[in-house]
Amino acid sequence: MNENFGLAVQFAKEEIQGFYDRGNNYKALNQKGRSEILEVFSDDFAWEEVLKHAAENYHAFDSLRRYCAHLIRAEKKLPQKLKHWLADVLEGIQPTLKQPRGGVLTGEDNNFLIPRLVEKVAVKFGLERTRNEATELHDSACDAVHVAIISVPDAKDIGKRQFRSIKEAYEKAKKRGIFMGN
Question: What is the pTM of this model?
């Protein structure tokens, strides 16, 4: 391992550990991404319309409970109808709907923590962002992030931690245009 790559790995480890040291976790980041997908943070979230379908539609139920969580965390006033709905859900009066078979769109697609770290490492240490998987030299920013993730014990909640999945996440984020100027 060359010195520059070693410094890149150390930097990535510190960034990842810092994320966890600040009380974060990867699963929570994915959940916030799901909330963004459902647009519950929007000021014009049509909660009254969603409430009409919350007893039979999982996406409506999920949106509404996430909207309530958002209002509570933001210390905003919870409308009376929502207070009663939430209390009914907590007491089991209103059904708690289960996620449909096959799953739902998760926030993992919106979670750019790892792709952004790849970009940051590449820029700071002058590394290629990714590499051809057949290449013998494993010295790209994706490689540095991979080595860092597997060496940070707290990062065990990051499910996709192999080089290939980090590379795919980076390429998907790049295709979505989250990086300026590259």
Answer: 0.69
